[in-house]
Amino acid sequence: MKRFVVTTSHKPSKDQVIQARELAEKLGTDYIPRRRLKEIEVDFYYVVEKSRLSIKWPGGEFFFHPSAAILRMRNIRNGQRDYLIETLQPEGNEVVLDTTFGLGSEAILMAAFLPKGKVIGLEGSVHIYTVVKYGMKHFETDIKWLKEALKRIELYHTDFKRYVKEQPDNSFDVVYCDPMFENPVYASSAMNPLRPFAVYGTVNEDDVKEMLRIARKKVILKSHIKDSLFKRISMDELKGSRKSGVMYGVIYKQ
Fold this sequence. Notes:
- The protein is α/β, with parallel strands linked by helices.
- The chain folds into 2 domains: 4-50; 67-252, Vaccinia Virus protein VP39 (Rossmann fold, 3-Layer(aba) Sandwich), CATH 3.40.50.
- Helices cover 32% and strands 24% of the residues.
- It is built from 9 helices and 11 strands.
- The chain has helices at 14-27, 67-77, 83-88, 105-112, 126-138, 144-151, 160-166, 205-214, 229-232, and strands spanning 4-8, 44-48, 53-57, 60-63, 95-98, 118-123, 153-157, 172-177, 215-224, 237-240, 246-252.
- It has a 7-stranded mixed sheet with strand order 7-6-5-8-9-11-10.
- Helix 2 crosses helix 4 (105-112) and helix 4 crosses helix 6 (144-151).
- It is globular, with a radius of gyration of 19 Å.
């Protein structure tokens, strides 16, 4: 595992120091006062700031921000299509399992259309989970729909392949899976900081069978048109933008 520590921003409050020490213990690493950070060699470090948690490394920084979800909601309200919401076809009371949470942009967008439902999110990377979980809890916003959507999300750190096998039949209305693309879209600035910490794994037919087993309505898979996913696994329906190459496939429960 890469070497990392936990520190604080410059001139931290007492509460920040306490949070940093607790986080370091939880992650099984050291707490280092910010003034001493330059004395040690690490690959990256957590920074407990006043209202957010970030990971920093030479030339990069990763923190939670729902900007992508905000932009997509703005586009929807301006009459533009959103293929995820089109494939979800929300009635408003569904329980959706998001097996590959990442930054949570798509989970937040789905949750916004589920006023009587919720999204259960799974994230396999402990570092992405830690930053995003903290970020969602502490993010301050005056945007009403966003504030409500964040309340309807539960996030857990676990391997989705194991998790889906452990769930009873028909546990969720919809199961959503968005594995890391085989052909990354590096123009996606929101995704780039996440890449060093992401879990890179493929979705196979056995995974999809388990997803269908625990879904009441359907399974939605996201992939790039150049990737192998939709060549390996048959979909009932495909929607997306040929221009961007981002596609959503749907398998309906029989």
